[in-house]
Specification:
pyridoxal phosphate; 6-stranded antiparallel β-barrel; Lyase, Ornithine Decarboxylase, Chain A, domain 1; alanine racemase activity; isomerase; 2 domains; YhfX-like_C; 389 residues; Amino acid racemase; TIM Barrel; alpha/beta
């Protein structure tokens, strides 16, 4: 999906990935991330956010909750993170990263509420009155008042399968006064997901945003004002103006930091591609080449790959996407013009934290490429003797 954009805007990343694989510095099934380009992308996002007066909270799941990358993002201008689940919040806190938002998309299990509140997250999202009551009870025991977001999800809103939950407008109207009586929480904002989708290469707000606006009016009638309007999904320099026009006060960039939202496939945005997937040809069978897998993602929408004997000899080939019902032991290339051991480069949309891949962090690729470290898909260091001290 992002192969052409990467070739056009960050070819050195591809060349570095090929070089490091062929030198044995990285193995197949490894994402290679250009840390300098991530910093550039964050600076572009921060500049646009300041222009639109929108606060940004950064998401790390796309690149595997990586400490080096998270710290670089903070240094480049986005100071607080959003955690997709409580386990990510714990991991980021261990790195010294401030947690701006947790509980959305994944709620906090009852037995973990105290642990998460001890991290002092700025906002916690709840899907129901029962979730809010549990948060409030623990907060009262801790002698604190936790700011919460209410997740809004009316019956006609767009929700991804596996992400259902939240307040319908009728449920909100029914529960709001009970919520206001909970002494351990403060209703500080609203959120939903997804708030922006890309259709025909244009960003559009979803019905969810209109429902959030209705929910905001409902709460105003109850005397609840000055709400944060947290509108995640496809946050980038190309969508922040649209978000602002629809009342957003917060966005949550993830793929924009690696230049991999659907809009970035065109290669024309300030954020540039900063991550590729590296593997190698395992074997040939029935006129096709098979490559080592483990890091493919069912929603990747990949269209092609590069087969390389070295960084100067690149052959573009078509790919056959895996059936998501099966384990991705291998990927398939529509070619027999490849050799066992050849390097293969993909550039597609991914979520590293749900794969079995490694991630290699590199810097200074335009002058003297350096491998900073290799990590597993949830941020743990993988010891290796192949990294220069």
């Amino acid at each position: 999906m992002f192969l052409d954009a990467t070739l056009k805007q960050n070819r050195k990343l591809i060349e570095t990935a090929i070089q490091f694989h062929q030198q044995g510095l990285i193995s197949p099934n490894t994402y290679v991330l250009d840390l300098d380009m991530v910093k550039h992308n964050v600076q572009m996002l921060s500049k646009e956010a300041k222009k639109q007066d929108i606060e940004l909270l950064f998401m790390t799941k796309q690149f595997g909750r990586n400490e080096l990358v998270a710290r670089a993002i903070v240094d480049a201008g986005i100071k607080k993170a959003v955690a997709v689940d409580p386990w990510e919040a714990i991991t980021l806190n261990q790195y010294g990263i401030k947690i701006g938002h947790v509980g959305h998309l994944v709620q906090i299990p009852k037995g973990m509420i105290r642990t998460i509140l001890q991290l002092e997250p700025e906002f916690v999202t709840v899907f129901s009155y029962e979730n809010a009551r549990q948060i409030s009870e623990v907060a009262v025991q801790m002698d604190k008042k936790q700011k919460i977001f209410l997740r809004i999800a009316d019956t006609e809103d767009f929700l991804y399968n596996g992400q259902n939950g939240g307040f319908t407008l009728s449920q909100l109207n029914h529960d709001v006064e009970s919520l206001m009586r909970l002494s351990g929480i403060e209703i500080a904002g609203l959120t939903s997901f997804p708030c922006v989708l890309i259709k025909d290469n244009l960003p559009q707000v979803t019905q969810n945003v209109l429902t959030m606006q209705q929910a905001k009016k409902l709460l105003a009638e109850k005397g609840i004002h000055d709400l944060e309007m947290n509108m995640p999904s496809a946050t980038s320099t190309a969508t922040m103006k649209l978000l602002k026009e629809n009342g957003a006060t917060q966005g949550e960039p993830g793929h924009a930091m690696t230049g991999t939202t659907p809009l970035h496939a065109s290669g024309d945005l300030p954020e540039k591609p900063s991550m590729v997937y590296v593997t190698e040809v395992s074997h040939l069978y029935n006129h096709q080449a098979y490559v080592f897998g483990g890091g493919f993602y069912p929603r990747s929408r990949m269209e092609g790959a590069l087969v390389a004997t070295d960084k100067r000899n690149l052959q573009r080939v078509s790919v056959i996407e895996n059936d998501p019902a099966n384990i991705d032991y291998y990927g398939t290339l529509e070619t027999e013009d490849a050799h066992v051991g050849d390097t293969v480069i993909y550039a597609f949309r991914t979520q590293v934290f749900v794969t079995n891949a490694q991630i290699a962090i590199v810097e200074n690729i335009n002058a003297n490429p350096k491998l900073l470290g290799i990590y597993d898909s949830v941020g743990h260091v993988i010891p290796t003797n192949n990294i220069d001290e």
